[in-house]
Amino acid sequence: MDEQFILNIKGLRLESVAGNVIVDNVDLQLRKGEVLGLIGESGAGKSTIGLSSMVYARAGLHIAGGEVILGGVNIRALDTEGRRQMRGKRIAYIAQSAAAAFNPAHSLMDQVCEAPVLHKLMTRSEAEVWACELFTALDLPDPQNFGKRYPHQVSGGQLQRAMAAMAMSCRPDVLVLDEPTTALDVTTQIEVLILLKSLIRQYHTAALYITHDLAVVAQVADRIKVLRHGKEVEEGLTPQILHHANQDYTARLVAVRGAAASERAVAATVQSETVLSIKDCHAYYGDFHVVRGVSLDVKRGETVAVVGESGSGKSTLARIITGLLMPRSGEIVFQNKALPPALNARSKELKRTIQLVYQIPDVAINPRQSLLDIVGRPVEFYFGASRAEVLARAKELMTLVELPEDFLQRRPGQLSGGQKQRVCIARALAAKPDLIILDEPTSALDPLVAEEILTLLRKLQRELGLSYVLITHDLDVVHRIAHRTAVMLQGQFVAFDETNKIFEHPEHPYTQKLITAVPEMRVDWLDEVMAKRQAAAA
Amino acid sequence: MAKLIVNRLLLGILTLFAVSVLIFVCTQILPGDVASAVLGQGATPEALIVFRRELGLDIPAHIRYWNWLVGALHGDLGVALTNKRVIIDDLLPRLRNTLFLAGYAALIAIPLSVGLGVVAAINEGKWSDRLANVLTLIAISLPEFFIAYLLIIFFSVNVQWFPSLAMVSNGMGFGERVYQATLPALTLTLLVAAHMLRMTRSSVLSVMSTPYIEMAFLKGAPRRRVIVRHALPNAAAPIITVIALNMAYLVVGVVVIEAVFVYPGLGQYMVDAVSKRDVPVIQACGLTFATVFVMLNTLADILVILVNPRLRHQR
Amino acid sequence: MKLFGHKLTASAAFGLTVVGIFILVSLFTPWLAPYSESANVGGTWDESSAKMLFGADQIGRDMLTRMMYGSRMTIGVALAITTLSFFIGILTGLVSAVMGGWVDVFFTRLVDVMLSIPSLIFALIILGVFGSSIPVLILTIAVLDSTRVFRLARALGMNLTVMEYVEAARLRGEGLWWVITREILPNAWAPLVSEFGLRFCFNFLFIAGLSFLGLGIQPPYADLGGMVRENAAAINFGMMAPIYPATAIALLTVSVNLVVDWMLSIDARPSGAQAEL
User: Fold this and answer.
1) Which helix (H) or strand (E) holds A488?
2) Which of C180, C183, C185, C277 is most worth mutating to test chain A (most A CB atoms within 10 A of its CB)?
3) Is C176 an 8 Å CB contact of chain A?
4) Which of the other chains make 3 or more beta carbon contacts under 8 angstroms with chain A?
């Protein structure tokens, strides 16, 4: 009965050295040639389970119980040498960050060929031939010579593919893919996804695909297992999980992503007065022309999103508005007065009216200050309030962002990611601003938490008449909150219109490419895209 | 990469210039009136004038500096104040002795401590590593003269293997030199090896924590291969830096050790000059020590550049 | 056993005890010492007896008394040096990190040049020109040592300046003083405290070494390094006289290092070398 499974994990249990249970009694079965998706939010234990299938635990953790049966052999019961022999050869790992996983001191070919030669499966020359085949299959440039390069000489997407080649070098029975496309741009991600899927199909390898992105895993996995806090929530065939989930948590995860198309309930908060207007702005980093002639306007009560991939210049635009970077030319008008481009030239009052919310809440608030200090300081600084006034206002702010008042005594280290982001928003609100710049405010948060933050932001906009400039790479976020959207590519806007219009009738080819690259919550989406590309190439 | 190396060499030369200026300023400018500082409050006005003329203090500062520097580059470091001897004649043989002692110690210390440091890192957490940690911690806490006296008590007084005073002279044969210098070299070795061992260990440990080392283990590479092929090439740069830093400790330790063993080296020469307030000798010795130091640091930085894989294979 | 909520190791407990004893002795020497500082109570290098626990020094004074006064002097001077050095180093380091620009370049280049001369050599140069009075010693060594504190404070400051919460304070319009004292310094304390311990040890050994060479604290002040020098000749007769003050020096520095090592290990995370294979 068990022989049909290539990988069979029973009752896996991992504990930290402090005694906390990280993974609690998880079972996992994988058939030959099958792809199982492991889905969960951060802290769910999915990476840990992936590594445990190779009987490997990072420092600070240890495998406390369970069996790991690979091809009928309980590898957990083997000694160190036995386990070492099976790693790389029968089960291989693809890490999240390729740049970190490659040794900077050796060439790519050395590292790709290392495993098969080490495990005595091939000679070095045979391994090199096989590596070139894999490079070709993974669509890497100049496959015959690609291996001679060093990790720092190739791009992120290429390195990720090289890592896939390294994992396949021994033709393992099982591949463990740990968030392989999370660190990549949306348009690069889809290329790598297509290649990974065809590679897995071609060599009939079984795979564990670990990710937090349900839409991505739906394209590649035959079955999906949902994890939460180290325990299994649900498992089933992919279409069943997507459309008929049994558990409430699973349903919520699916709903968050899938709501993109349906949720357009962006309230009518826009007024007629223009709060911010940018005309033909140009900015440089040294000689590099990073912002090329951008024009933008934001009305009171409106959210304008600026969407782009890394390197598009969207973050630079945010820095220009806040005064951290001086543009070389262009006009910026804020509330009918010219905005001095340099931060130092702005009055305290002016600085008060434009606030910034950062991407990573852990570094955006000082870990050594209490929440009262963090949220109260702007009140004291801008309004000269007394101690009692500051305390009263701080309590109001906590209520506004839906945090309990007694949190004011706490330090950031005691809060979760979502709570910290609420504190950042409260700090921005403390200044009673007219405009808030949100720089990727939800990118570092889990999808369900991000959803809550977006709901909060919409509520605040309704109640306080705030204007937002939202910088993001995530199109889903844009759907949920932006009235108008600008699409940015290499320093220029290729589109700037109402959000609905942009997504329903994308005109510019880049906009089309961006929209179609976002995985949808349908099982056959990727296959459709692959078919379309083949048809276009023919 | 060649450009980087040339830049670093130029920086080294520039630093030497800056150092010479600094030394000159400290010895000739800062004290205000060097004459009364050296001769004391009770000096007669005539004595002060004579002193100033002897030292050439009546010439403007930058010309004095230039003269001094040009002289130094030609090997003329002036004349000692106390005994009127030509400085370079006394300095050169002592420099040779000091370099011999330092070299002797380095030859033993470097391979020993780097090797043990790597082993300690590999065995992190085990008893052998913990023992090494405690022993080296004690060793770096002890003053140099303490270690020296302990070794003297044991090796000279008790078992009488080595002399307690290192009498090294010019005409001595190599073997005799080695024998006389053994106890001081051993002391220096203990001093420096402990530092180097600790720093090597932490450098290797930080390399062992990188993701690409984890990847190597996940490919099924055995521990020895991971350390030799994957970790060490990347630990080379920090280890070289560690060695250079500790050559600096060596320079400092040499001075005290020479005093304990009455070894006729540059350190002793300088200490004598300081207690006699012999400014020209102090200048000369300071410049010599600093030059050796800057040269060592420059060499270390260049080696680090040569070893960096990102620089050896450009984009 | 726990201290400030962290588990104490045996070596740390030992270290803390010894340091505690030294501090107490140094503070209350005039009341605790058996004899006065320069009282002559025996012959040269008398053996240890009930009257004199560690025997006599080279002119017949009680070794134990001299060691107590010596500790007081040497520890006091080393503490003064380290405090001054930290004050200078932290101020210049953090200002350089936060202000950047020409201020940063100026201080960094100056420190680079100063660090190109080994500290002992540099100290010898200054002492040779200005003499070895206690104020000169303290000032010279403090300024030399502050270069290392500068480097650490600057590195910490540079890591912290790029944190978004520092940028947020800047965006608000907070002044330099606020940013340094309220945003950066509270996050930089931990490494600075352990560094204080290490620098204290170094300066303590440095002063003792200089005194040993005859260039540090001058007689008639009692000082541990000077005592080693004065009693050095006894070694040739197989007597232990110089070993007592030398051991005192070693004991204190070992203890401080043990305590600092323990403090550093509290924060240390297990490294990759301990992964389960």
Assistant:
1) strand A484-489
2) C277
3) no
4) B, C
Tokens of C34: 């058996």
What's the N-to-C CA distance of chain C in angstroms?
Answer: 33
CA distances from B37 to A455, B27, B273, B278, C180 (A): 77, 11, 15, 11, 41
Burial of C188 (0-12, 13-18, 19+ CB in 10 A): buried
Instruction: Give the whole-angstrom CA distance, residue B234 versus residue B222.
Output: 18
Would an 8 Å CB–CB cutoff place C105 in contact with chain B? no
Distance of residue C148 Cα from the nearest chain A Cα, in angstroms: 26
DSSP B83-121: T--BHHHHHHHHHHHHHHHHHHHHHHHHHHHHHHHHHHH
Residues B31-78 have pLDDT tens digits of 666 666 666 667 777 877 777 777 666 677 778 788 888 888 887 777
The pLDDT of residue C148 is above 80:
yes
With a CB-CB cutoff of 8 Å, which residues 30-59 of chain B face chain C?
A: 30-31, 34, 37
What are the residues whose beta carbons fall under 8 Å from the beta carbon of A192, sequence distance 6 or more? Answer: A157, A160, A161, A180, A181, A184
- What global pTM score does this model have? 0.82
Q: Is the ipTM of this complex over 0.95?
A: no
Using the beta-carbon criterion (under 8 Å), do A86 and B214 form an inter-chain contact? no
Choose from A61, A62, A103, A145 for mutation: most chain B CBs within 10 A: A103
Per-residue pLDDT tens over the stretch C61-111: 888 888 888 899 999 999 999 999 999 999 999 999 988 889 999 999 899
How far is the C-alpha of C175 from the C-alpha of C99, rounded, in Å? 11
Of C241 and C142, the one with more pLDDT = C142
Judge contact between C119 and B288, C-beta under 8 A. no
Using CA coordinates, name the residue in chain A closest to C173: A348
- Running DSSP on this structure, what letter comes out for residue C9? P
Residues of chain A falling short of pLDDT 50: 1, 261-262
List pLDDT tens digits, range A50-80.
999 999 988 888 888 899 999 888 998 888 8
* Cα C222 to Cα C216: distance, rounded to the nearest angstrom: 11
Q: Are A41 and A108 in contact (CB under 8 A)?
A: no
| Separation CA A106–CA A150 (nearest Å) | 7
The A5-16 sheet, strands edge to edge: A21-31, A5-16, A61-70, A73-74
CB C41 within 8 A of CB C62: yes
**Which residues touch A232 (CB under 8 Å, ≥6 apart)?**
A26, A27, A225, A226
Whether residues A364 and C164 touch (CB distance < 8 A) is answered with yes
CB nearest to C173's CB, from A324, A351, A360: A351
Q: Quick one: closest CA in B to A113, which residue?
A: B219
pLDDT tens-place string over residues C14-73: 999 999 999 998 888 888 888 777 777 777 777 777 777 777 777 878 888 888 888 999
Using a CB-CB distance cutoff of 8 angstroms, which residues of chain B are in contact with residue A152?
309-310, 313, 315
For the record, the structure tokens of A147 come out as 């291996």
Give the N- to C-terminal CA distance of chain A in Å, as an integer: 46
Which residues make Cβ contacts (< 8 Å) with residue B32, sequence separation at least 6? none
* For testing contact with chain C, the best of B25, B122, B142 (most C CBs within 10 A): B142
Mark yes or no for CB contact C272/B209 under 8 Å.
Answer: yes
What gap in Å lies between CA B290 and CA C227, rounded to an integer? 30
Determine how many CB atoms are found less than 10 A away from the CB of residue B256: 26
As a whole number of angstroms, the distance between CA A41 and CA A417 comes to 12
Chains that touch C (3 or more CB pairs under 8 A): A, B
Tokens of C106: 């100026």
**All residues at 6 or more sequence positions from B37 whose CB lies less than 8 Å from its CB, including other chains:** B31, C129, C130, C131
